[in-house]
Design goal:
It contains eleven helices and ten strands. By secondary structure, it is an alpha+beta fold. Strand 3 and strand 4 form a beta hairpin. Helix 1 runs parallel beside helix 4, helix 2 packs antiparallel against helix 4 and helix 5 packs across helix 10. The chain is rod-shaped. Bound molecules: 3,4-dihydroxyphenylalanine. 3,4-dihydroxyphenylalanine (DAH) binds next to strand 9 and strand 10.
Length: 349
């Protein structure tokens, strides 16, 4: 009897020792990957694992020791399970982090935006003139009376000088938003010596009610060529080349006499309708022709105003609206669409 007691004492003494050792082992057990985690699980948590063995031996220990040993086994169980689930979730998180970016995947190409239709047409027009040796020049949007009106030979009573048509910022001296890019002609002629061959794109402002065919802000392109012996024939030839480049090789042009204060003689140019090819349609109002620009020979007064001798130099000028040309080229029916930034419209260009 006493012999059995000693044996049992030894058993539960050894068991306690063993559990303390397991507690230490679990603490220092290092697990770096899922294979090692599985080893850990098999060692402690499987059917033949350490915890199961301890529970089985637990049955054999004397009742008075059960409380203490039971507590220790539970402590060990919690430690093992805690460590197992902590490392399991850490390894899972690591693996999703690694697969979030798969560098071996074929890249999905990014959809690029496009230039605004007005910018596209502006670039197209300026590059046609660049091939003819024109250079690009720009001027300020906020201007004075001299560059927008007086130097361009506008009479004192000209209606464009009226508040009805022009946005004034200050009166006396007049500071205003330019109503046309012709003001850039003056700035160029004042600062550069002929020969001059320049193309001047820019934004202009007019006090107009907004409708499908008019806006208070729009864009123009101005052209100017000043040299000795420049003639109306040069102007016509240049504009014919331009029209064919922009609207197609079979395009025809016609010049109708007109009036602008800064050119003499002045003309308006029509191109044969690129949509119906001259047969007549809604866009050309069944005339077969589309008006696209104003032009003429630079008035000698304008040259003199800029310090260029009109007895030595002559020149031609022209100006066109980018919105209008874009409308005619792409049959856009409402000019307001350019400014609404509706992708269904913009994506078509
Ligand atoms: N500045 C004129 C306008 O806004 C357009 C124009 C007509 C410009 C004839 C020119 C030109 O250079 O020669 O209506």
């Amino acid at each position: 009897m006493s012999c059995i007691l000693i044996k049992e004492f030894n058993n539960h003494y050894k068991m306690k020792e063993a559990i303390y050792q397991h507690l230490k082992d679990v603490d220092s057990y290092t697990i770096n990957n899922s294979a090692e985690l599985e080893e850990f699980r098999l060692k402690y948590l499987s059917k033949k694992g350490i915890l199961q063995q301890l529970f089985e031996s637990f049955r054999t220990i004397p009742n008075e020791e059960k409380k203490e040993i039971g507590k220790l086994i539970n402590e060990l169980k919690q430690k093992v399970e805690g460590k197992f689930s902590e490392i399991q979730s850490k390894l899972e998180a690591d693996s999703t982090e690694n697969t979030a970016i798969d560098y071996t995947l074929t890249p999905v190409s990014m959809k690029l935006g496009t230039r605004h239709p007005l910018s596209q047409v502006r670039n197209e027009i300026t590059s046609i003139f660049k091939t003819l040796g024109f250079t690009i020049s720009e001027g300020p949007e906020i201007e004075d009376d001299w560059h927008v009106f007086s130097a361009l030979n506008f009479a004192e009573e000209h209606p464009a000088r009226d508040m009805q048509d022009t946005f004034f910022i200050e009166k006396n001296p007049d500071i205003l938003l330019r109503t046309h890019t012709s003001s850039v002609q003056i700035r160029a002629m004042e600062t550069q010596k002929p020969p001059l061959r320049i193309i001047m794109p820019g934004r202009v402002f007019r006090n107009e009610a907004i409708s499908y065919r008019a806006h208070c802000i729009f864009h123009q392109i101005e052209g100017l060529y000043i040299d000795k012996n420049v003639s109306f024939a040069d102007l016509k030839q240049t504009l014919l080349y331009f029209a064919k480049e922009l609207f197609g090789a079979d395009t025809k042009i016609r010049l109708r006499p007109s009036y602008f204060p800064f050119t003499e003689p002045s003309a308006e140019m029509d191109v044969s309708c690129s949509i119906c090819k001259g047969k007549g349609c809604n866009v050309c109002k069944h005339s077969g022709w589309l008006e696209i620009l104003g032009c003429g020979m630079v008035d000698p007064n304008v040259l003199a105003n800029c310090g260029i001798d009109p007895n030595v130099y002559t020149g031609y000028a022209f100006g066109m609206g980018i919105e209008r040309i874009t409308m005619l080229k792409y049959a856009v029916k409402d000019l307001r669409m350019y400014f609404e930034n509706d992708l269904r419209f913009l994506n078509q260009f």
